[in-house]
Amino acid sequence: ISFTIEFERSNQILENLRTLYDINQQLANVNDFKTLTVQTLATAVQAMRAQRANLMLLNEETGKLDIKVVWGDIPKAVRDGINEGRISTRSLALGEGVAGLAAQQGKALRLNHRSKIEQFSTNPVQCIMSVPLTYGGRLLGVINLTNKVDSDGNEDPVGRYTEQDEHLAMGLADQAAHNLHKARLYDASITDRLTGLKNNRHFQEQLERAMARCRRDATGLCLAIVDIDHFKKFNDTYGHKVGDFVLMQTARLLKSACRASGQDQAFRYGGEEFCMVLTETELETAREHMDAFRVSVENAEHVWQNQKLRVTCSVGICHFPSGAKNTSDLFEFADNALYMAKQAGRNRTCVASTSMVQGVSSASTGLGSSSPAQAAGAPDADRTTFGSPDDRVIAFDPQRPIASGAPAWQVGVGGSGSDAAVEMGSNHPEDFASNSLLLIDEDDPLAAMMG
Q1: Which domains, ranges and CATH numbers included, belong to the chain?
Q2: Interior CA angle at 160 toward 157 and 161, to 5°?
Q3: 272 among known catalytic residues
Q4: Beta-strand relationship, 394-401 and 359-361
Q5: Phi and psi torsions of 395, nearest 5°
Q6: Which stretches of 79-159 are assigned E, i.e. beta strand?
Q7: Local structure of 195: helix, strand or coil
C-alpha cells in the first residue's frame, strides 16, 4: 500500500511539474499587466478545478488587498465589470479573512470545512485556498480559490483542496509573482507618470497593431489628436504645477470618455497633446464622440487653491482607411485637422479626409460655407469647406481677475453650458496617485470569494 501511495504521489508531482512548465511557456512572453493577471487566474482555475477565483494585489497607498481580476463560475457581466475596472469591490486589510491572513503570515492557507469559513453571501463557500504572491521578499498580492468542480464542471460539494493542490498553487504563485513583477516594470515603461495614461511609445505600438487588425478584418478606425488651447500661456501665467494639475484633469476626462465597450484607447502623446484611437468607428461617430469630450473639457471647472480655472481644447480626427492609407498619413492628416481647428478659432473639432478637411464642428456651428483656405490664410483649391468660426473662442484676459488676483482663462461671449467642477483643494499634482488600476470602495459583490 505504501508503495502505491508513493507511486501516486510521484505521478502527481510529475503532473504538477508539467503543468507549471506549460503555464510558464504560455505566460513567459506576456507583458501586458491586465492580460497576464487574467491568464494567470484562468490557468489556476483550470489546473485546480476551482469553481471561482480572484487575484488581489496589495495597494501600497492603503495597505489593503484589492481585487483586480476574477474568474470562474461568475456572471459574465459581473466578471467583465470587475476585470475592466467598472465594478468596485471590497478591500481587505492584512489579517482580515482567509486572504488577509495568508498575506499577513506569508504562507498558503487551506480551509476545507464550511463551518470554519466565515460566509459573506448567499453563495456558500465549501472550501477555500489562499496563496500569497511574493517577489524578493515583498508581498505583491494573494490568489484565492473557492469551492471545487467535478470533471463536468459542476460544483462538487464534497471536493476539497489537497496538499498536492497547495504545492501546485505555490508553484503557480511563484511564477505569477515573477511574471507580475516583470509586467509591472514593462507597464511603468509605457505609462506616463503624471497622467497615468499610456505614453507615446505605447501609442505608436498600439496604433500599428490596431491598423493591422483593420486590414485583416476589413474594418476601420479613427485617430483623434487633442491639444489644450493656449497651454503655454496658461503655464506662464499660473505656473507648471497648476499646468500639471490641469493636464491630469484633462487626462481623466479623456480616459472617462473611452467607451465601456473597450473600443477606445487614450494616450498622452507629449506636452499638452493627447491621442485617442477609436477602433471599429466611423468618422461621423468619432466626430460626435470627440466633440462631446471637447464640450466636457470646456465645461470643466478646475479649482486650484480657491482659484476657478477653465481651459478648452481643439481636436483633429482622421479615419483609416477612408482618409489615410498608412500610419504616417493617418497621423499627419489628423494633425493637420487639428491645425485647421486651431486656425478656425480653437475650441473646435475638425475631421479630415484624403482631401484633408471635410468639416469643422464647434459649439454652435456645423458644416459651413467658408473655406479652409480662408481660415488658414493661404489658397488651397483641393480642400473642401468647413464651419466658419463663431464667437466661442478661448480668450486669455489678463484684465479679468479671479480670487487670487491672477488672470483668468475664459470662454468668449457665446460661451454657455453647465459647469462640471473638479474640486481638488490645495493639493499638489505630485500628491495624487497617477496610475491606479482599479478604484476600490466597500461595495463587495464577491465577498464570499475572499473568505
Answers
A1: 2-191+438-450 (3.30.450.40), 200-431 (3.30.70.270)
A2: 145
A3: yes
A4: unpaired
A5: -130, 140
A6: 91-93, 109-111, 128-135, 138-148
A7: coil
User: What pLDDT shows up at residue 87?
Assistant: 86
The SS3 call for residue 166 is helix
Location of C-alpha cell 474594418? 219
Q: What are the grid coordinates assigned to 247, written together?
A: 493636464
The predicted pLDDT at position 389 comes to: 35
- What per-residue confidence (pLDDT) applies to 159? 85
- E strands, 4-137, where? 50-59, 64-72, 91-93, 109-111, 128-135
> Which among 61, 272, 282, 423 is annotated as catalytic?
272
* CB of 337 closer than 8 Å to CB of 319: no
Q: What are the DSSP calls for 323-371, one per residue?
A: T-SSHHHHHHHHHHHHHHHHHTTSS-EEEE-TTS--EEE-SS--S-SS-
Predicted confidence (pLDDT) per residue in 222-257, tens digit: 999 999 999 999 999 999 999 999 999 999 999 999
CB 26 within 8 A of CB 35: no
In the block, residue with C-alpha cell 515573477: 178
pLDDT for the residue numbered 276: 97
Give whole-number Cα distances, 347 to 40, 236, 274, 344, 411, in Å. Answer: 45, 20, 15, 9, 9
Gap between the Cα atoms of 55 and 426, Å rounded = 36
> Which residues of the chain fall below pLDDT 50?
20, 27, 354-451
- For 88-118, the pLDDT digits (tens) are 888 999 999 899 999 999 999 999 887 777 7
Other Cβ atoms less than 10 A from the Cβ of 247: the count is: 24
